[in-house]
From TrEMBL:
Keywords: DNA-binding, Phosphoprotein. The modification 4-aspartylphosphate is found at D51. This is Response regulator transcription factor. Residues 124-218 bind DNA. It comes from Paracoccus aerius. Pfam families: Response_reg (PF00072), Trans_reg_C (PF00486). Residues 124-218 form the OmpR/PhoB-type domain. The keyword Membrane does not apply. The keyword DNA-binding applies. Residues 2-116 form the Response regulatory domain. InterPro entries: CheY-like_superfamily, OmpR/PhoB-type_DNA-bd, Sig_transdc_resp-reg_receiver, WalR-like, WH-like_DNA-bd_sf.
Length: 220
């Protein structure tokens, strides 16, 4: 899962990055509103954590521009502002959730996971596809009740396919959500990860749709 942290306080941004990465997100960070507007408007994210008090362009203006331009990534507003009128304004502008500072990192992670599940149309943290079970809170995978050892990259790929199992996911989208900006986004590397997963979960769960991408489903 791919997350964008928009926060000008580098200490807070570093704490957020560590917490989100430990929760299975691949995190990118920008420090000002104009950079956030460009990044959020041109890239696809599973989650955006947005501070309102930003230099160059305030967070509320960034959010309004995103929504006006069709950006539908889930947005969690993070701000020191506590007035209920400002919370309402943020929600009305298109925010999906609101967390005032100071906050517990555990609560932020719980809210982040809930937003990702909701955006994928999933209500619970444990996703079941046939005998395969993916626990998004524990970041664990099991098959017919038996725990499976997966790498972080394998888990990210499997959780993304699980959350989007009602459609075929193009390779370019998977690469974008699996790898960081400094990592090689190579279709052959993606095929290698999928091949490893098929050896672990069986060949019938991850389907290849030639020319379209991949989807996840119980063997038919």
């Amino acid at each position: 899962m791919r997350a964008l942290v928009v926060e000008d306080d580098r200490r807070i941004a570093a704490d957020l990055t560590r917490a989100l990465e430990s929760a299975g997100f691949r995190v990118e960070h920008v420090e000002d509103g104009e950079a956030a507007w460009f990044r959020g408007g041109t890239e696809s994210y599973d989650l955006i954590v947005l501070d309102l008090g930003l230099p160059r362009l305030d967070g509320l203006s960034v959010l309004k521009r995103w929504r006006a331009e069709g950006c539908d990534s889930p947005v969690l507003i993070l701000t020191a502002r506590g007035a209920w009128t400002e919370r309402v304004e943020g929600i009305d502008a298109g925010a999906d959730d609101y967390l005032p500072k100071p906050f517990r990192m555990e609560e932020l992670i719980a809210r982040a996971r809930a937003l990702v599940r909701r955006s994928g149309g999933r209500a619970t943290s444990v996703q079941q596809v046939g005998a395969l079970s993916v626990d998004l809170n524990r970041m664990s995978v099991s098959l017919a009740g038996v725990p499976l050892a997966v790498t972080p990259l394998e888990y990210r790929l499997l959780s993304y396919l699980t959350l989007h199992r009602d459609r075929t996911v193009p390779p370019s989208e998977l690469l974008e959500h699996l790898y960081g900006d400094d990592d090689a986004r190579d279709a052959n590397a993606l095929e290698a990860v999928i091949a490893r997963l098929r050896r672990k979960i069986g060949p019938g769960l991850i389907h290849t749709r030639r020319g379209f991408g991949y989807d996840l489903g119980a063997p038919g």
